[in-house]
Amino acid sequence: MLNAGNPIGVMDSGIGGLTVVRELQRILPGEDIIYFGDSANCPYGNKTSDQIFELSSHMLQFLGDNGVKCTAIACNTISTMADRLRPCFDYKIVSIVEEAAKYVLREHLKSVGLIATEFTVASGKYAELIHEGDPECKVVGKGSPLLAALVDRGDFNQHDINTEIRTQVDNILAREKVENLILGCTHYPIVEENFHECYPEMHLINPALEQANAVKAYLTEQNALNPQKKGKFVICTSGDPQVYVNVGKRLGLFEASELKVVHI
């Protein structure tokens, strides 16, 4: 039996998961949220699977020790190994990749572009999950080695960000004229306007909304929604907390009631 008063955990390799917090606060404003962003080790997409597993396990252990009733793995790279992580923890873990794949299937898309970290694209997890439901859907992915780190810096250099977006998305379009693009890293919706500026006709799929809806559905089913009017928001990071405050303002998040530097 879940305790409705316990917090929701959200974890990411850096600031990107704040886009999931935005959607959670919009649809579940009464929930307490504890966020962990491992900026000291960002980006995860350039690491080995064993390194990612070890760092992710530390974050999940930290959130479990803080009594979370479920955790949204906001990081797409970590979510590719959700099946490996789940047996190690006794609370519900919601994968952002799984929820985004369900959206593609629900909308009956015949082709979709995917921009994500190199690890996420190389893992083939998006294509695997989509093809389980529709083997004919074309999934055309391109990994960006730079974009997550450019966003995580927090200075939003428009020239560098737009150059990286165009380089990677043009590569996708050269292979398939997709009309829908999965923003397969939670850092990317922070610069959604840059994607719109570069590709105004492209429909962008933001997996953060799908993940937030999945968390709500789970807590509703478990009768574990927090009835309070406005929840507390705690930010824990291995990096610079001020970057999180700045991006939180950019996204319109509730002000964090507590900022903690935690080394994992």
Report on this model:
The radius of gyration is 17 Å and the shape is globular. The chain is built from twelve helices and ten strands. By secondary structure, the protein is α/β, with parallel strands linked by helices. It has two domains: 141 residues, Rossmann fold; 110 residues, 3-Layer(aba) Sandwich (Rossmann fold), CATH 3.40.50. It starts with 7 loop residues before the first strand and ends with a strand.
Entry summary:
With 264 residues, this protein is an alpha/beta fold. The chain has 12 helices and 10 strands.
User: Which structural category do the helix and sheet elements fall into?
Assistant: alpha/beta
Cross-sheet strand order for the largest sheet = 4-3-1-2-9-10
CATH class of the largest domain: Alpha Beta
Compute the number of helices: 12
Percentage of residues in helical conformation: 40-55%
DSSP summary, beta strand count: 10
**Envelope shape:** globular
Number of domains: 2
Instruction: Please state roughly what percent of the residues sit in beta strands, choosing from under 5%, 5-15%, 15-25%, 25-35%, 35-45% or over 45%.
Output: 15-25%
N→C terminal distance? 29 Å
Unreliable parts: none
CATH topology term of the largest domain:
Rossmann fold
**Radius of gyration using CA atoms only:** 17 Å
Order of helices and strands: EHEHEHHEHEHHEHHEHEHEHE
* Average of per-residue pLDDT values: 95
Largest beta-sheet characterization: 6 strands, parallel
Oligomer: single chain
CATH architecture verdict of the largest domain: 3-Layer(aba) Sandwich
